[in-house]
Sequence to fold (382 residues):
Amino acid sequence: MNRYFDHNATSPLHPAARAAWLDAQDHHWHNPSSLYREAGAARHLLESCREAVADRLGCAAADILFLSGATEANNAVLAHAAAANLPHIALSAAEHPCVSDPAQHLFPGRLSLIPLSPHGLADLAALEEILATQRPALVALMAANNETGTLQPWREALDLCRRHRALFLCDAAQWIGKMPSHGLGACDFVTGSAHKFGGPKGIGFLKVPDSGRPFRWLRGGPQEARRRAGTENLPAIAALLAAWEAVESSATDLLPARLQARQAFEDRLRTLLPEATLLAAEAPRLWNTVLLALPPPLNVKWLARLSACGFAVSTGSACSQGAGASDVLLAMGLSGPILGQVLRLSAGWDTTPADWLALADALASVHAGMAQRPPSSPALSL
Ligand code: PLP
Fold:
């Protein structure tokens, strides 16, 4: 029984990634920038991984650089935009803090926020209005949201940006490995992170356009065509690719069955625990994600009880008091105590329908257990 439901936070290492990591570490541990034969073989592997990543996205290999993950990649894009003195940028209210935080820091007063619908989807009419009136030179809209699982209309947003001659950044950290990635390469900037889809932590990629101002992120050695200095983490890069190939090869074929498994969970939960509300339920969502608003007590208590039953889930970034509550949920119009009642469930490539149903049963029995418990007596004070 697989009780791990926190894949949107991180995923275990996929066996294919582990094998690729060990193989590259054993046979290609040399520095790809060195000049002897073994280093040449490491360079060859590095470049073939770059080609394969580019093929998966549908872009040129020269547009791909490897770095430590999506946080670094998104920071790099925003620093690049700031260095180019872009007068104005826009981003959706769904963005991960590794987009919104550097954007607020680097573009104070020069930033428009694309609002969300109550179901968590970026409002394309509002984006069009922003493009027409504020003329942002760069727009950021993620592919899939880490908290709600909503599939954002990134293709439509890209079209709008093309029409208004704005560059488009798509954070695909949660999309890749769960949905087909081909076509993402049409975006100007794409960011991704291996540990979200079965690769190791600390490795990711960035797709940058080869036109315009030269991209210089970390300065130092000539690695990654001078765009990101530092010796390449080749075993991790090989593992990133192996995990991606392994989880995506079956993603399209398995999609109907995976959606069915989640639906069966939601149906069972509606029967066993009608007090629970599904959030963002009306929007197209990743097959692996369910965001629930549960009855009292607070989400952290639910999480602790589920954890005691062996289930790993997440409160997302919602907090109990409202202060510091999830910006995404606030942007969806949620407010008040519900912000402290939210639980995120995120499955993985090996989650079975039986695992989902066991989680529904666990939620119901945790609820029943809490209802039977007498209210805790006030602490004695002497
Ligand atoms: N973007 C999204 C949508 C994410 O969900 C995450 C991780 O939670 C990140 C970026 C950051 O990824 P990394 O851990 O590679 O820095």
